[in-house]
Design goal:
Blueprint: H1 5-29, H2 32-88, H3 93-175, H4 179-191, E1 197-201, E2 204-205, H5 214-222, E3 229-230, E4 237-240
Parallel strand pairs: 1-4
Antiparallel strand pairs: 1-2, 3-4
Helix pairs in contact: 1-3, 2-3
The chain binds zinc ion (ZN).
Zinc ion (ZN) binds near residues 207, 208 and 236.
Length: about 250
């Protein structure tokens, strides 16, 4: 393949832009924020579950306390009815004695129920403290996650703007390279880690970093300036410049 030496030099400009674009793509997929967001999201999921369990415990206790309150209320009403009956003095002495007896046991029953209710209320208070603590931790993680997402978005926007600039610069450079040479460059770039064209600097291929010697060096040295030469080692397009040491 043949190409004007000046056109060949443009491949180095193209390579510089493509290398920069490759670095931007790498930067985009390797932002530390990605890992941080994954970690924080998992943390948020886990603490959201933790909070739901803690809240369920409070809700269970609320339900129990309500039930006890209903029971206590019933006992109170029944005791009030008994008290009224006693106060009225109606009924036989035997009946009044039975009513008095029931009133005493209702009083005991009410005290027991109230003790248990008090225990439940204390448990509820402790469970509510856990909910508050877990909620605070959840809110903290949510804030951190939001901040990390905002940082990631800002960095992605920066990268996109940078890419846009590079793409804009790439267009006119690529236009100056003949289609067959561009196709070869692209083909090599795809199969050779993103580098299709490399400068020959001080007899060293900057693509594979190997020094040319013997027959290879002689072949490159004697090739016509418009001959497109390739590195024997890495097959990349070798661009000769005043620094090639030929
Ligand atoms: Zn090479």
């Amino acid at each position: 393949m043949k190409a004007d030496p000046f056109v060949q030099l443009r491949l180095l400009d193209l390579q510089a832009v493509d290398t920069a674009l490759g670095q931007l793509a790498h930067k985009r997929s390797h932002l530390p924020e990605h890992a941080e967001i994954t970690r924080l999201s998992a943390g948020l999921d886990s603490i959201t579950g933790e909070r739901a369990s803690a809240q369920a415990e409070v809700d269970d206790l609320d339900r129990d306390i309500k039930r006890y309150e209903g029971d206590i209320d019933q006992v109170r009403q029944r005791a009030a009815r008994n008290q009224a009956r006693l106060d009225s003095g109606q009924g036989s002495p035997k009946e009044l004695e039975a009513t008095q007896h029931e009133l005493t046991s209702l009083g005991r029953r009410q005290a027991e129920l109230e003790d248990t209710e008090l225990e439940l209320m204390e448990k509820r208070e402790a469970a509510q403290v856990v909910v508050a603590e877990v909620t605070a931790r959840r809110d903290h993680i949510a804030t951190e996650l939001q901040a990390a997402a905002a940082r990631r978005d800002a960095l992605l926007a920066e990268i996109a703007a940078e890419e846009e600039k590079k793409q804009a610069a790439r267009g006119p450079i690529a236009l100056n390279v003949p289609a067959d040479l561009l196709a070869l460059y692209e083909k090599i770039r795809k199969s050779s880690g993103g580098i299709g064209a490399a400068m020959l600097r001080a007899r060293r291929c900057e693509g594979c970093r190997l020094e040319l010697s013997g027959g290879d060096l002689a072949r490159v040295r004697t090739a016509a300036p418009d001959e497109v030469v390739r590195c024997e080692e890495c097959r990349r397009i070798l661009i000769r410049t005043g620094e090639s040491g030929l």
